[in-house]
Amino acid sequence: MSVRARTVAFMNATPVAAIEPRLELNRKKLDELRRANGIGSEAELAKIIGVSPATLWRITNRESVPSNGFIARLKIAFPHVALESLFDVATEPRPQLVERAS
Fold first, then answer.
1. How confident is the model at residue 59 (pLDDT cuts 50, 70, 90)?
2. What CA–CA distance (Å, rounded) separates 86 from 99?
3. Looking at domain 3-93, what is its CATH homologous superfamily?
4. Which residues, 6+ apart, have CB-to-CB distance to 60 below 8 Å?
5. Which of 10, 50, 71, 81 lies at 20 to 30 Å from 88 by C-alpha?
6. Of the ranges 13-17, 25-29, 86-90, which is most confident?
C-alpha cells in the first residue's frame, strides 16, 4: 500500500479532531544535504541556520517540533531544496484524556 493510500485510509478511519499532525525533520535528507554542501558537523549546520546545537539535536531526534522560524532558516540555508523533501507529516491520534478519580 502506498504512503498516500495509507494516509487516506488513516484519515478516513480516524476522526479529524483526534489527529495531532506535526512536522518531523527528515534526518536522512538533512544529513545528505549537510555532506553535499561540505558542512562537517551538526554543530556547524546549527550555526549556519542560526539555532543552537541542542535545538537542532532535539528536532532531528523528534523530541521537539520545528518552529516556523526553524523551517524558514532551513529554507534560507538550502533554497534549492523543496520543503516537502525536508519534512514528513506525522499523524498520530491524540492521547486520550484520563479522568482522575476524586
1. very high
2. 38
3. lambda repressor-like DNA-binding domains (1.10.260.40)
4. 25, 27, 30, 42
5. 50
6. 25-29
